[in-house]
Amino acid sequence: MPIAIGVDVGGSHIACAAIDIETLTIIEESYYYSVINNKDTKELILQTWGNVINKTINEIRNKEIIGIGFAMPGPFNYKTGTALFKGNDKYESLYEVSIALELPKYLLIKNIPIRFLNDATAFGVGGSLKGGHGICKKVLAITLGTGFGAAFLNNFIPVVKGKSVPLGGCLWDKPFQKGIADDYFSTRWFVSKYKMYSNGENVEGVKEIVTKNDVYSLKIFNEFAINLSDFLASYVLDFNSNLLVLGGSISKAHHLFLSNLVNIWKKKNINIEVLVLENTEQANIIGASYLFNTNFWETIKNDLPLF
Prior knowledge:
Radius of gyration: 19 Å
Shape: globular
CATH class of the largest domain: Alpha Beta
CATH architecture of the largest domain: 2-Layer Sandwich
Structural class: alpha/beta
Largest sheet: 6 strands, mixed
Strand content: 15-25%
């Protein structure tokens, strides 16, 4: 039974598990999770990542481990395994660090293949494979959390070039209003908006805004729905998507914005099925481990995004 370790790197956490790549199931007791301070030094971040992965390795030490796949947020060079985090408020100490070369120093297994996939792509692949939506040929998957991720999938294969998708198949860096998409569809936008509308009240994150359920919360989520619908509309149409998959911590508050977004699109004759996946981490881990499916890897390895 070939086993791959799938790793989900989030803006404030790391999670990993061993996956049977034939059945795409998590090996019992191999799942581990840790909170991460994304402002830490390079050494502390890599050490924490290594410690968590090593726990999973220890659980399957007598099995055949064929590789480690990472679901990694951008900006990142997915071909070389080099971090390019700069100016997006996370992991900036890893800027221009080769994770592929540096991380094995902290692992129990030194000579093991390590592959990287955009986290939103991994989410879309894992979610589509395990979500029973194999008949949906064209999927736009987005993750809403500390950052904004997106992926375009055609029959589970990431589409990163061509007239129907933006360059690299990414959306986080695309212009929107007075900045880029990541400025408007991430946690920091919610926090700054709440402070502005409430005349200076600070909140920790989206969960607190949801819990407050006050006039400011409702105003912010209404504005978010309008912004997200406006931004995504042209990409949905250009790619001719028939399924939108939502994940990430902000998507857990979908009851506050999703119906509004769908209604806006219906008025524009944009009709698309929407699937919200509650367990983003599991989808990311499975999608990352799928890098060691031979057919999948041979299809995508030469078209991995460089940013």
